[in-house]
Design a protein that fits this description.
The complex is a heterodimer of chains A (80) and B (696). Chain A is built from two helices and six strands. Chain A is of the alpha+beta class. Chain A has one domain: SH3 type barrels, CATH 2.30.30. The longest helix of chain A has 9 residues. The radius of gyration of chain A is 11 Å and the shape is globular. Among the domains of chain B are: 173 residues, Rossmann fold (3-Layer(aba) Sandwich), CATH 3.40.50.300; 62 residues, no CATH class. Chain B has a six-stranded mixed beta sheet, with helices on both faces. A two-stranded antiparallel sheet of chain B has the order 6-8. In chain B, strand 4, helix 3 and strand 5 form a beta-alpha-beta unit. In chain B, helix 25 crosses helix 26. The longest helix of chain B has 35 residues. The chains are: A alpha+beta (80), B alpha/beta (696). At the A-B interface, helix 1, strand 3 and strand 5 of A face helix 3, helix 10, helix 16 and strand 9 of B. Strand 5 of chain A pairs antiparallel with strand 9 of chain B.
């Protein structure tokens, strides 16, 4: 069974596949994130959280990206 | 576009374009022999840089190095420069004839997106796979001829740090590029009509090729603000807006569709050209370092420790070479004293030039070590980690992690710091960062801090630890005040949302020492040239104003008080005496508005320091008494003066750069008035409050 959840709720070390942008993701954010490679179907791994609700670090392909939690929760992922 | 044809005398222009931190500037430096600043974080280059190189066959070629971009649609000021130059919208820079698309070969799956976007522009393009060694170390094998075939344009692999590896690139640049890449503009059915209609204008009125005009029209549809002729051409704009709203109704996600299709192309290309070697260790060195450097607890402490060590080295270790320079200058002063006959010339040389300029040169070791530390951090890849750790704390005060690098650079000098804010997309964040940058205690304040701490107490002066602690206190005062000011601005004048924040964490790299040393050399040169020109000039003017008109029969104190500068100092003394400053300090303060470190030169001239037979600037100031027999520089006066220097905006160059970066006089004038007023108030509170508490 597929489990869907916001990207920000992945646990450390978990892998997910980007499913879609949730309502509330403004078109500016959607375009920017996708141009950076966070397109639906992309496999990502949550690496770690910065302390005190800071950004989260992701592995996207060979790269490491950090997003803010408030923006990461706009992305829905499927557990991989 | 005809300039590329054989026989043309005009050299072709190549634009270097690529994702941030792909190594564009390193390649630019290797090709041109120039030495532009490089580092291991996104956003080192924030303006276009031009240079000339020679192809393998000896033809001159123009190169334009551009800030890194993720796409062509973004609107942060640095990325906008790249788009404008590429489209030929930048005044004074004709559209480049060809593009060098620089790609980090180890991140091909991400960087190819921009390459496809660039190929769609229809300009002749060479794709440069940089850091091919890093990709190989990761176990990635790239089929270069296959990639070239799939992209429809030449592809070469290089290591930008190795000059020998550039031969294939120079050869490719030699072949005059007349053929645009065989890569079609990616589009969808719904876009066909709008693109054709909008492109007609570009073709008929601006002489563009249909492909380039369509590509430009596509960009205008995505981001109308990116059109240079957007507000002027009413008819065209009406058409554009009509199509935009039509697309918005019938196909609202057309931009998402294009991006996703392009990434699908990228995935297809990568699948066919990259093979992954088996048996490569899973956790890389970067990941192992990051598990410590980004650890929730150790990461934060580590950052504090790194900054602490950096400042300790500047404050304590640099004192040793500083002593040597001071000793040398004192000997030089003695030599001058003995060589020159008593008179005007000797006074000028010993008390004006050697004291004034020498007082500043003694701080060269501090400046060099500061730039060494910052240079090592910049080229290692650690700065992006600091951005990650500090994003949340910075958000609390209304800034973002991206404000950190500009702010840190401002501890060296506010000018590069303010330039670096171009990477900040949100205008409100950017203006707030520009505003607070001068409160990061820059290297020009160091001489003033060190001298005043030495004057304040011999105990502090003799203990490197105490001195470093006091300095840290001053730095923290400026830093926290800057954050408070940012918060104040972001909740009043500069309200507004912070845009989406994405931080790329690059692989750690061993710092390239020659680049770091080069940066130090440039800084040292700048510092010495400044001492030899601006400060020398000011020292001579000050020496004259402090020793003229010559009063016959007056003792040195009366001569000083009666000089032009002395008279002026007395005139403004009432304004500054509530802060504890007498007329001598007043002269120094006024002079320091040209540049902060001139305060030290002025004090050295006023107190006639310049020879070893005298006691040295700090002791001279400490023991000086006024006509009533009281100390001029009591500890409380020193603290008041230090606080004034923490806050006051005393740098003409910073004001000029703020004017340029904000495109108006409003911000620099506001900064000058607000910061000076705050400095005055803070000193007033320190001095008057201290007196009430019975301190002196």
């Amino acid at each position: 069974m597929n489990t869907f959840l916001p990207l920000s709720e992945l646990k450390i070390g978990q892998w997910g596949i980007i499913d879609r942008f949730l309502e509330g993701a403004a078109s500016g954010i959607r375009v920017r994130f996708q141009e950076l490679g966070l397109t639906p179907g992309t496999l990502i791994q949550l690496m770690r959280f910065a302390p005190c609700g800071g950004p989260i670090q992701l592995r996207v392909g060979e790269a490491f990206l950090a997003l803010r939690k408030g923006e990461a929760c706009l992305l829905q992922v499927r557990l991989a | 576009m005809d300039a590329l044809q054989a026989g043309s005398t005009e050299p072709s222009t190549f634009a270097l374009v690529g994702n941030p931190n792909a190594g564009k500037t390193t390649l630019f430096n290797q090709l041109t022999g120039l030495r532009q600043k490089v580092g291991n974080y996104a956003g080192v280059t924030v303006e276009k840089k031009e240079g000339t190189c020679f192809s393998q066959h000896g033809h001159p070629l123009n190169l334009i190095d551009l800030p890194g971009v993720y796409s062509l649609a973004s609107n942060s000021p640095d990325e906008a420069i790249t788009r404008k130059v590429l489209l030929g919208h930048e005044p004074g820079t004709p559209r480049p004839h060809a593009i060098l698309a620089i790609v980090d070969a180890s991140l091909l799956d991400r960087h190819l997106y921009l390459v496809l976007r660039l190929l769609e522009l229809g300009q002749p393009t060479i794709v440069v796979l940089n850091m091919i060694d890093v990709a190989e170390n990761k176990g990635l094998k790239i089929d270069i001829s296959g990639l070239s075939h799939l992209l429809g344009t030449p592809v070469v692999a290089v290591q930008a740090t190795q000059p020998k590896s550039l031969l294939p690139l120079r050869l490719a640049m030699s072949r005059l590029l007349t053929t645009p890449p065989a890569h079609a503009l990616l589009t969808i059915d719904e876009l066909a009509e709008p693109l054709q209609a909008l492109a007609t204008y570009g073709v008929t009125h601006r002489g563009l090729s249909p492909k380039i005009a369509e590509s430009e029209a596509l960009l205008c549809l995505s981001a109308p603000a990116s059109c240079p002729f957007y507000p002027q051409n009413k008819q065209w704009v009406t058409l554009l807006e009509a199509y935009r709203s039509q697309l918005h109704t019938h196909c609202p996600h057309w931009r998402d569709t294009l991006i996703n299709r392009r990434y699908a192309q990228v995935a297809g290309i990568c699948e066919r050209t990259i093979t992954r070697a088996a048996g490569i260790p899973k956790t890389t060195l970067t990941e192992r370092i990051d598990s410590l450097a980004l650890h929730p607890l150790w990461g934060g402490l580590g950052l504090l420790l790194i900054l602490g060590v950096l400042f300790y080295i500047i404050f304590a270790v640099a004192e040793i070479p500083k002593g040597w320079i001071e000793g040398g200058l004192a000997a030089l002063g003695d030599y001058g004293e003995g060589l020159l006959p008593v008179g005007e010339l000797r006074s000028l040389v010993v008390h004006g030039i050697i004291a004034g300029v020498g007082g500043i040169l003694a701080f060269l070791p501090q400046i060099l070590l500061l730039f060494l530390g910052i240079g090592l951090l910049e080229s290692s890849g650690y700065l992006a980690r600091a951005t990650f750790i500090l994003d949340r704390p910075m958000q609390r005060v209304g800034l973002q992690g991206r404000s950190f690098i500009p702010f840190l650079s401002s501890y060296a000098c506010a000018i590069p710091g303010i330039m670096a804010t171009r990477t900040i997309e949100s205008t409100a964040d950017r203006l707030a960062t520009i505003f607070i940058a001068p409160w990061a205690s820059c290297s020009a304040r160091l001489p003033v801090y060190l001298v005043m701490l030495g004057v304040m107490s011999p105990t502090i002066n003799n203990s490197p630890f105490l001195k470093a602690t006091c300095l840290l206190g001053l730095y923290l005062l400026g830093t926290f005040s800057a954050f408070a000011m940012a918060w104040l601005l972001r909740s009043s004048l500069l309200k507004g949302e912070t845009g989406p924040t994405i931080i790329e964490l690059p692989l750690y790299r061993r710092p390239v020492l020659s680049f770091v040393l080069w940066e130090m050399w440039l800084r040292a040169k700048l510092f010495v040239v400044r001492a030899g020109t601006v400060i020398l000039g000011l020292s001579i003017v000050l020496w004259y104003a402090l020793s003229h008109p010559i009063l016959p029969d007056a003792n040195p104190a009366a001569q000083l008080a009666g000089s032009y500068a002395g008279q002026f100092g007395h005139l403004i003394e009432p304004l500054l005496s509530p802060l504890g400053f007498d007329w001598r300090i007043a002269i120094g303060l006024i002079a320091s508005f040209a540049a902060r470190e001139v305060f030290v030169s002025t004090m050295a001239i006023i107190y006639g320091v310049g020879t070893a037979t005298e006691v040295g600037l700090e002791a001279a100031l400490r023991t000086h008494t006024n006509s009533a027999g009281l100390n001029t520089f009591t500890p409380l006066v020193c603290v008041s003066l230090l606080v004034f220097f923490v806050y006051a905006m005393q740098c003409v160059s910073t004001l000029a750069i703020v004017r340029r970066e904000t495109n108006s006089w409003r911000w620099p004038i506001f900064q000058l008035i607000a910061m000076t007023a705050i400095a005055y108030l803070a000193s007033l509170i320190v001095y008057q409050g201290g007196q009430l508490l019975g301190l002196s």
